Amino acid sequence: MNLKKKNNRAWFLVLPVVVVVAFTAIIPLMTVANYSVQDIFSPTNRLYMGLDFFRQIATDPAIIAAFQRNLVFSTQILAIEIPLGIIIAKLMPRHGWKAAAALVIVAIPLIIPWNVVGTTWRVLARPDVGLLGVAINQFREFDIGNTPADAWFTMVLMDVWHWTPLVALLVYAGLRAIPDAYYQAASIDGASAMSVFRFVELPKLRRVLMIALLLRFMDSFMIYAEPYILTGGGPGTSTEVMSILLVVIAVIQFDLGKAAAFSLIYFLVIQIFSFIFFTVLTLDERPGATKKRNRTAESARDDVARAIGGSR
Amino acid sequence: MTTQAISITRIAKVGSYFDWRSWVFWLIMAVWSIPLLWLMSMSVRYNEDILSVFEIIPSRISFRAYAEFFNDPLWYGALINSLSYTTMNMVLSVAVALPAAYAFSRFTFSGDKHLFFWLLTNRMAPAAVFLLPFFQMYQALGLFDTNYAVALAHMLFNVPLAVWILEGFMSGVPRQLDEMAEIDGYSFGRFFITVFIPMIRAGIGVTAFFAFMFSWVELLIARTLTGPNAMPLAVQMATTSSATGLDWALLSAAGVIAIIPGVIVIWFVRNYIAKGFALGRV
Amino acid sequence: MATIRLENVAHSYDGGETYALKEFSMTWEDGKAYALLGPSGCGKTTLLNLMSGIVTPSQGRIYLDDVDITDKPTEQRNIAQVFQFPVLYDTMTVRRNLEFPLKNRKVPPERIEERVNYIAELLGLEDQLDVRPAKLRSDLQQIVSLGRGLVREDVAAILFDEPLTVIDQNFKWTLRTRLKRLHLATGVTLVYVTHDQTEALTFADDVLLMNDGEVVQVGSAEDLFLKPSHEFSGYFIGSPGMNFLDVTVDAGVVSSDGQHLGLATDASLSGAMRLGVRPEFVEPVTRGGVDMTVTKVENHGSFQIAQVSFGGHSLMAKVDSDIFVEVGQKRPFHFDSERTFLFQNKKAVSTVDTGSTKESR
Amino acid sequence: MSLELRGISLSDATDDLLYDVSAEFQKGMNVLVGPTLAGKTTLMRLMAGLVPPTEGQMFLNGIDITSKTARERSVSFVYQQFINYPAMSIFDNIASPLKVQKTKPSKAEIADRVEELAELLGLTPLLNRKPSQLSGGQQQRVAIARALARKSDIVLLDEPLANLDYKLREQLRDELQKIFSDADNVVIYSTAEPAEALDFGVKTFVLSRGRIIQEGSALNLYKEPTNIDVARVLSDPPINLVTSRRSGKKTTFGDASFSFSNDQLENRTEFTLGIHPHRISVERKSPQDVAFTGTVELAEVTGSLTYIHLELTTGEYVVIELDGAHTVNPDEAVTGYFHPKHLHGFDADTGMALFATTKVSG
Description:
The complex is a heterotetramer.
Chain A: E1 5-6, H1 11-36, E2 38-42, E3 45-48, H2 52-59, H3 61-91, H4 96-107, H5 114-124, H6 131-139, H7 148-176, H8 180-188, H9 193-204, H10 206-221, H11 225-231, H12 242-252, H13 256-281, H14 300-311
Antiparallel strand pairs in A: 2-3
Helix pairs in contact in A: 1-13, 2-13, 3-7, 3-10, 5-11, 7-10, 7-11, 10-13, 12-13
Chain C: E1 4-11, E2 21-28, E3 33-37, H1 44-52, E4 59-64, E5 67-68, E6 79-82, H2 94-104, H3 109-123, H4 138-150, E7 157-161, H5 169-186, E8 189-194, H6 197-203, E9 206-211, E10 214-219, H7 221-226, H8 231-236, E11 243-250, E12 253-256, E13 259-264, E14 271-277, E15 282-284, E16 290-299, E17 303-310, E18 313-320, E19 330-335, E20 340-344, E21 347-353
Parallel strand pairs in C: 3-8, 3-9, 6-7, 7-8
Antiparallel strand pairs in C: 1-2, 1-4, 4-5, 9-10, 11-12, 11-14, 12-13, 13-21, 14-20, 15-19, 16-17, 16-19, 17-18, 20-21
Chain D: E1 3-11, E2 16-25, E3 28-33, H1 40-48, E4 55-60, E5 63-64, E6 75-78, H2 90-99, H3 107-120, H4 136-149, E7 154-158, H5 166-181, E8 186-191, H6 194-200, E9 203-208, E10 211-217, H7 218-223, H8 228-234, E11 240-247, E12 250-253, E13 256-259, E14 270-275, E15 290-301, E16 305-312, E17 317-323, E18 333-338, E19 344-347, E20 353-355
Parallel strand pairs in D: 3-8, 3-9, 6-7, 7-8
Antiparallel strand pairs in D: 1-2, 1-4, 4-5, 9-10, 11-12, 11-14, 12-13, 14-19, 15-16, 15-18, 16-17, 19-20
């Protein structure tokens, strides 16, 4: 029985959050919207541009290329991080102090500042003194500064190193929520480890994997710090993701109108995925989701059973 | 008596007595820690060795980089800036989020679902989108290049994060408890502080950790809203690394120091990390 | 089908300090229905887990048809288990769920087909075979998980760990009827754990009454009610439970502070003991018996509970609803002969002949 | 001391929960009985002041308390799920209602009161433990002790024993009876089990689908239910209900047809016959006994009693209660006998009672 009380006075409790987030989100978004439809030379001299900037964005090859790069980047990292995360989660010890130690060690990459990750991998990838660079250099020439493929490879590897632990921890939490009875039943049924994974674990991990997928997609789609420090978007524009390009347009080219329009489109794409994410997150909380108690006809026989079962 | 929970290892162990699963796991973790160990080894080597000699175990060790870090006001100042605005942000975010999370967890009110979703969209908003407006707004408010600017700006995604995680923890507390406290004669304030908050201590701890973490690792907004006076550690590292003639050892040392705050707290929230990232929904 | 034999099996989770299950031996006959009954924490689930192989006993051996299976893991024991909540493979239809154990044991396909159809019919699931189990009612879901055990021909026993716990109150009845009929139809040995007296006594041929890790008595519903061998059987079975009186026995003569109560059938007994009689067998009579005063009457409609006292003792009598009983009444009550017992340190040592018997109830 | 409800109705957005409930709860223990989802918890929460009624008023000793919130009322509540303050020790749990009073009693007075209650409910050795370290039964005792701490005017117990195993239920029921036997405040105990209502044997109110359909002593409700729902709810085990077709002087019961007349029947051709399971036996006891046959669906043994569930030729079900433990296998044919004077009659549509068992003398 959902005990949540209807109480509009609750707005007073929520007000501080609304004020703060409005100040930090709505006002800025309004200014962005404002810029996206006007060309501003000075505070007093502005020219209404209508949707002109948005058309420019839609046709700007650099932006389209960055968008495609982001898509490819997100798909590649998901294709690696989701399965790798599941494997690590499956291998993690479940009981005793080893489990606690494993949780901490797996989580370490997640608490390292994003710029430090970029710096570390930038050094690691140097062909002369970096461990990774030197190792690859033995076989083939490796230079992230000039060969786009090497830069892209390092960027993907860096992201896999940095964020696979998140997938592993989410899947691990999902696995630990599975009651032991399912494993006992599977062993009684003589199920092999493979079928335990396929028929017991995977179906129970559906929701957690959806959360991992969406969380990783959105974060990778918005990535800035790590590639910026690793390659600055180079060599050329081979690793120039949308965030880097947006900062270039807004801060370096100082083309406010175009940057604002680009920001709005970028923001809306993310909101679409946030909505899917919201539906998944609140999947079992929606009233419709919980089965309504169906009242079967009270046959005399059931009364007797209920009374006896309960009282004697 | 608890039934002895059988671990997954029992099923997968096909007769072999040596627990291959843990071996493979710790092997993967060893490989995973290479980048971090490399950073640490660089922080204790000489610059000339770093750039000329490829060696895995450093032949000569010196703590010059760390000493220089803690003597150069530019560096330790940046550390203090980072610590101050992240702590400020953490306290503000949790304080503001607590009553709101309680409202979302205990009441239905007009527009609650939409508000809850709107908060999520802010947590997921791309930081790059807010560069320009933040820059102008905080300059207009005269807050540019101060710790307050970054602390306030980071609330954009930390307050929604805090509301969601706290609401996740609060929904674990049965509603009948609130009613019983009301019946026993507790006023709302007294109940909230003396009964309810102690019950979600773990939740507040985890929320504070995640608010701290997201603010501590963020680079873009921190860089945009700070000049020389409020320069945080992350920005300091990013700007020096782009100039030629780098002091790699010092940069690595700064990197290692930047990891320490997270490592200290992570042990305490280890069981809630997944729950934190999934906004309290796992 | 096979017999399962436990030889001085015991188990402790903390290395011998406390025993979740005290030393115990028993042979579980093939085809019988057993119930492990007792309050929470009495060790009944531990005993069940020892049989299923989830827990290996600290001491003692377990045999299946004289084959030692003590150290065999669950998958190599011929048992199946139904848990407190329905454990099903959500991504499979009911048919695939039933086929699963046979497929894993590499049973030829046509044999699987045959077995699954036979069991489906037995369980009354013929027209639900191609449905996802999640759509079924909770009691039918439990039937499907039971089916996974019945389908296997090598199953020696099916274990039930409080299977009615999450079933909706109205459907507990249909599941109980189905389990009883299935037992009669299949003749598989069943071991059923519960803390509910009615579930245990209705379901099982023999009930193992347990308390604090000890198997206090093994017997049919009638034995536990009419011939309790331990004070706990008297207390736990029946509602309200057995009355107990401190008595002194002198060469078979039973009396309590001067009031003669009857003669112990074992004349050699003497010393301080406890007399136990169920409220059902404390009956108001017109003459004979012991004079008692009624101190309280509760009328339950179909029966009355009269609180009666004599010489500082007070006990309860279950009186038929049509008999007139009133607080303050002074009238004789007597204890039914074969239904009155003497207990010495908790164990029943003899019945008491109180000079009158009633046809067995 | 009395709590009076006048015309209380409550409906939330989706459906109506309570209709026109009027009742007066006197000093001491009162029992509110009804099947699950009848609205018991809703009514209890309403009386506690947690939910305001849509219509109607509440009077405590004649004073209108309808608009008073739970905090302003002198009320205590015990939930079904043993709700305690997990972060506090048992001592603080019991003392908390006293500590938050406006006129706070002294430390010593609080300590005495807590010790007195701990003694009453056997919690003395557990006072400095946390609730999570206690068993279900002990946790519920703590909740009851806290409810008694303040000697409030109204004490509400909402199915407090439902989650405990049956032996513990029996024990706690006796304890509650002793505690509240001479209470001078209004105690309301709600339950879904008829046995508990009959066990307490105090003034009982039957709630069904949001309405109080009858009130009176538990025994009287058992003997003379004015409505089929009361008969269903209150008798333990529930009364057998069989549709009976009447032609001329004869009326049917399963495959039996016997002469039966009662002026309430007038010219009804179909009505519902009710008979308590312990009024049916498997041997003929008197010449006027009526015999009917059925096949056994299942025999339920509770130790002291056996309930045989028979399927009649008409497809309806009837239960026979036998003393002692008997093993009867499914599908056996059984003949049942009953004396017509033990029959109840109800109107087939409205469920209103037509006649109850004629007074049995002696």
